[in-house]
Amino acid sequence: MSSKPIAPDSGLQQLVDAGYEVEVRQQHLLVHRVPYVTADRQVKLGTMVCLYLQSGGSVLPPNTGGDTHQVWWAGEYPCFADGSPMSQLENEHTRQELFPGCTIDHRFSNKPFGVDAYPDHYQKVTHYANLIQAQARVLEPLATAQTGRLTIAEDGTSVFRYADTASARAEIMTTSARLAMGKVAIVGLGGTGSYVLDQLAKTPIHEIHLFDGDLYLQHNAFRSPGAATAEEIDAKQPKTQYFQVKYDAMHRGVKSHPYYLDASNISELQGFNFVFVCVDKGEARKLIFNYLLAQGIAFIDVGMNLQLVKPSMKLLGSCRVTIATPEKHDHLGQCVPMDDGDDDVLYRQNIQVADMNALNAQLAVMRWKQYCGFYQADFDTYNMLFSVNMTSLARQVTIAETQP
Question: Any transmembrane segments, and where (predicted)?
């Protein structure tokens, strides 16, 4: 039993006061031990689940913010006392993991006559609970969901400062959980690396480590996400510190390492689950690649090559995403430039490429999500190249995947 205070709650405190056994987890409200009748006229206990969305410190009432009047049910389908199904509840019968640790069997849809929307979760829960347990009481008069057992269990251990209501609304909590790696590194917080961080901070990775020895200066503000203040630019603080502070507002696990990786400290990447390599120097790439391959750590390398064409004074070029895993990395030599040269000079100096930075990062993060099993991958793509002048995306895949 927990005595944790409850507020604000959209009817949760009323449920607790009434003796319902309730639990809040992963933006969902669970009502345990609801008695119901099975098809063979036994009285069993099921769990009712519904969305419990928070926004700005308040809980949204049902029928707002993507919530509906429906609920999920974990257990056999409830029946009348004679064993016939309660057809007035019927909506969907699909067993699925709603979020990690919560598997449901059915979805119900029912509202009282003349009611368009439930004003709070108390009214919603008690409506369904009364319908279902009334039949159980015909067989067992003392059957009740009001057990008085309190299990409010939102433990505050999430990596997010505030809840991921987007995944809850879309009912993809289980899919999103596949992204919950232990430690991911971003090496290089330039234009592309900063946009990689912007996306990773919205995923349930436990720790996101940032490595870069540069300062955050005025030109960086024009090719990174968000809008830096003049005071933040004048502070000339390390890039990793600037971005750590920015994204700590959303994600608890962002870690700052305000220095470059070299032969003396490359071992700091030991134990990482995945690494994004966002550097523009061939020698640095070699060092990082060799270490990650030796450690069996999968990684993605990104790169851009933009050129100014005269006399049109237009830019053309491409951005690249290359993934390497312990099983597949023999393509790195042909896909990734390993020698230092002046091909990236324009990219490093020109500030008007934020869109290409962002696209490069988005492609990299999408490929990582495929690697994690979040997105379906019909092909095992190991290299992607987007050409801005052709507006085309070319991909290279392993031969095994292309054969019938």
Answer: none
Cα distance between residue 85 and residue 238, in whole Å:
64
Backbone dihedral angles phi then psi of residue 30, each to the nearest 5 degrees: -110, 130
pLDDT digits (tens), the chain, 404 positions: 333 434 446 788 889 888 999 988 888 999 999 999 999 999 999 999 999 887 766 788 887 766 688 999 999 999 999 999 999 998 999 899 998 889 999 999 998 888 888 889 999 999 999 999 999 999 999 999 998 876 655 555 678 887 777 787 777 888 888 999 999 999 999 999 999 999 999 999 999 999 999 999 998 999 899 999 999 999 999 999 999 999 999 999 999 999 999 999 999 999 999 999 999 888 999 999 999 999 999 999 999 888 888 899 898 889 999 999 999 999 999 999 887 654 444 444 443 589 999 999 999 999 999 999 999 999 999 999 999 999 999 999 986 544 44
- The predicted model scores a pTM of 0.75
Sign of CA dihedral 248, 250, 252, 256: negative
Arch. (CATH architecture) of 180-402: 3-Layer(aba) Sandwich (3.40)
User: Domain map of the chain by residue range?
Assistant: 12-158, 180-402
Edge-to-edge strand list for the sheet holding 71-74? 21-25, 28-37, 43-51, 71-74, 106-108, 90-92
